[in-house]
């Protein structure tokens, strides 16, 4: 509601209230009645316009019930009843609009977060320009305390960036050269030079705003049903009131029934809950596609999840160094292994080299190296032949096998010197620090967690044991994951699928709810996922499902309150004692109660568990054979 519309809406309510108060204060009955009629006209004019507009599209609206009741009261010389009905209805509409704007605050906050200017480096000199003056490839300078105006990549500098507007993260993310940043976020420390890649409508923030706009306007199945119901209910109320008037010869009773049977609270109960729920989740970095998906998410009781990059970090790390020859220490074995792996481009080689660096073990330059497909690498290090890989690279069979380490889900490799095994190094893709807590939270919500991965079974089962996964399916093709989802659905489960959106596409399409994690770096995921978790946080999934359930419970409670209010008022009218003005007052009070309950959804409830600090962006690698 813009300021002009807001002023007009509340101005009508205020003027009507003043006229009613003046009527009570004036002793002259004729003048008092005239003031009451004026109050009814002032408050009822816009209601009547709305009713006529609805009739033009062949819709009998609630506004028409109020207008008919108010005009009927005037003909019965019940001027106070007419003024009260129109004033209370106008007041309720004004409060309803104000509250809906309040529930849409998350969207307003996102829009206000959009920057308008940027400091761009032109010929090495900083220049402030309007955002539309930028083009992809421009170098943008961002200083401490400034807002980042574009999506881009850090090309120099270091700093802590508050990404709460995008991911909902409360802890600033450390950014260095090569890291991505997003428009609308804030640099809290340091100075960054950023190469612009997404500007204005092409930025992640703009895509989020567009997504939340669509989601808040999207209707839940319950809302669609109630709107269809009201199309028949409202004309039914008018017909019933007419019949009551004809049979009882009591026009005032008929008009009172017309007023108190208004389904206002019933109609508003669903949209206000959906807007509040989706708005709250957007603030916390969870984008839900719309009301229909929110309702479905509330029923999810099975989650099919990929392993690599979702339950795990997606980055293999060194886990074990085992000594097989007493003449060597762990660090000496790691030194020759890491030195040999410097000649390899395999992801597992990176893990061994990084592990050596973390332990303070220096590497030496290899004299020459020869990758052996499917087996490992052979290299000359300091005049000795060093091999890292399978037993096939060794001249003498090793005394220890790799079974125990492999059963733990680790990829183990022999380290050989001059044909003899001197040690073993093992690497593994480790579980996310928050994964176990997230799965416990899902279990608390009655959700069964099924791992579906293309990785080897020992690797998958090891991670599953660590995290408490209910069921494991390994060595799968993409179509196998779809089969698992279909089987769960045939057994009565409502299935969510959490995957990377590439090799998991068939399963994501088959699932009832498709979930993307770490979507801030993926514009496609923001647009296509039913639920997009902007932060790279597994704990956001149980939060999203919990919020969906809270929202649906709120919708059901509000529907119950609305129906109970109408039933009690009808009983009160039949029993006597409920007048038209009292009926409208109670009716509008029920609308406010329904809105108030929905607004409770706006309270922050996100609690991060199992996470100490934000995780770094991960690369989701698929499992590869050793040195293939």
TrEMBL record:
Matching CDD domains: P-type_ATPase_HM (cd02079)
Chain ranges passing through the membrane: 35-55, 253-279, 557-575, 581-602
Keyword tags: ATP-binding, Cell membrane, Membrane, Metal-binding, Nucleotide-binding, Translocase, Transmembrane, Transmembrane helix
InterPro entries to which the protein is assigned, alphabetical: ATPase_P-typ_cyto_dom_N, ATPase_P-typ_P_site, ATPase_P-typ_TM_dom_sf, ATPase_P-typ_transduc_dom_A_sf, ATPase_P-type_domA, Cation_Transport_ATPase_IB, HAD-like_sf, HAD_sf
Coiled-coil annotated residue ranges, if any: none
Source organism, top-level taxon: Bacteria
Location relative to the cell: Cell membrane
Family membership noted in the UniProt record: Belongs to the cation transport ATPase (P-type) (TC 3.A.3) family. Type IB subfamily.
Domain P-type ATPase A: 114-213
Protein's name in the database: Cation transport ATPase
GO cellular component, one term: plasma membrane
Main location class: membrane
Membrane topology: Multi-pass membrane protein
GO molecular function: ATP binding; ATP hydrolysis activity; ATPase-coupled monoatomic cation transmembrane transporter activity; metal ion binding
Metal-binding in keyword set: yes
One of the Pfam families matching this protein, by short name: Hydrolase
PANTHER family on file: CADMIUM/ZINC-TRANSPORTING ATPASE HMA2-RELATED, CADMIUM_ZINC-TRANSPORTING ATPASE HMA4-RELATED
């Amino acid at each position: 509601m813009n300021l002009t519309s807001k002023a007009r809406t509340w101005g009508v309510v205020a003027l009507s209230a003043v006229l009613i108060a003046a009527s009570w204060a004036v002793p002259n009955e004729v003048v008092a009645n005239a003031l009451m009629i004026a109050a009814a006209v002032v408050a009822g004019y816009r209601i009547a316009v709305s009713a006529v507009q609805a009739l033009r599209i062949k819709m009998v609206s609630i506004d028409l019930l109020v207008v008919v009741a108010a005009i009927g009261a005037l003909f019965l010389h019940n001027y106070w009843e007419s003024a009260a009905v129109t004033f209370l209805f106008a007041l309720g509409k004004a409060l309803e609009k104000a509250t809906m704007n309040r529930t849409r605050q998350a969207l307003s906050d996102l829009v206000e977060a959009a920057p308008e200017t940027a400091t761009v480096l032109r010929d090495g000199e900083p220049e402030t320009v309007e955002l539309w003056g930028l083009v992809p490839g421009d170098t943008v300078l961002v200083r401490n305390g400034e807002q980042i105006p574009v999506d881009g990549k850090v090309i120099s500098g270091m700093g802590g960036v508050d990404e709460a507007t995008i991911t909902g993260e409360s802890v600033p993310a450390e950014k260095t050269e090569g890291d991505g940043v997003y428009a609308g976020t804030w640099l809290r420390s340091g100075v960054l030079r950023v190469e612009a890649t997404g500007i204005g409508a092409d930025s992640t923030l703009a895509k989020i705003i567009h997504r939340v706009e669509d989601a808040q306007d999207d209707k839940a199945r319950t809302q669609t049903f109630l709107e269809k119901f009201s199309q028949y209910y409202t004309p039914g109320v008018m017909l019933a009131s007419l019949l009551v008037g004809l049979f009882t010869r009591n026009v005032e009773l008929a008009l009172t029934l017309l007023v108190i049977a208004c389904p206002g609270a019933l109609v508003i109960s669903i949209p206000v809950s959906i807007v509040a729920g989706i708005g709250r989740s957007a603030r916390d970095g969870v984008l839900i596609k719309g009301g229909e998906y929110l309702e479905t998410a509330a029923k999810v009781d099975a989650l099919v999840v990929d392993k690599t990059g979702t339950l795990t970090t997606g980055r293999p790390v060194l886990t074990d160094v085992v000594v097989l020859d007493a003449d060597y220490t762990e660090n000496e074995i790691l030194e020759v292994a890491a030195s040999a792996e410097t000649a390899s481009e395999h992801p597992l080689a990176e893990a061994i080299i990084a592990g050596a660096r973390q332990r303070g073990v220096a590497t030496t330059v290899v004299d020459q190296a020869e990758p052996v497909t499917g087996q490992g690498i052979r290299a000359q290090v300091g005049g000795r032949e060093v091999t890292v890989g399978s037993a096939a690279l060794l001249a003498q069979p090793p005394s220890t096998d790799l079974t125990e380490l492999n059963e733990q889900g680790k990829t183990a490799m022999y380290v050989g010197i001059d044909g003899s095994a001197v040690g073993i190094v093992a690497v593994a893709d480790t579980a996310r620090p928050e994964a176990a807590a997230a799965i416990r939270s899902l279990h608390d919500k009655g959700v069964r967690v099924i791992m579906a991965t293309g990785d080897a079974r020992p690797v998958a089962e090891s991670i599953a044991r660590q995290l408490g996964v209910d069921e494991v399916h390994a060595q799968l093709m993409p179509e196998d994951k779809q089969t698992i989802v279909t089987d769960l659905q045939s057994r009565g489960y409502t299935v969510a699928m959490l995957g990377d959106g590439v090799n998991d596409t068939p399963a994501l399409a088959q699932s009832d709810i498709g979930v993307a994690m770490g979507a801030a770096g993926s514009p496609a995921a923001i647009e296509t996922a039913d639920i997009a978790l902007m932060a790279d946080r597994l704990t956001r999934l149980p939060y999203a499902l919990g919020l969906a359930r809270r929202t649906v419970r709120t919708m059901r409670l509000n529907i119950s309150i609305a129906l109970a209010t109408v039933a009690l008022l009808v009983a009160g009218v039949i029993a006597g004692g409920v007048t038209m003005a009292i009926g409208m007052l109670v009716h509008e009070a029920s609308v406010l109660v329904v809105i108030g309950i929905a607004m409770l959804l706006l309270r922050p409830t996100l609690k991060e568990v199992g996470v100490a600090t934000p995780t770094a962006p991960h690369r989701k690698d698929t499992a590869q054979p050793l040195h293939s």
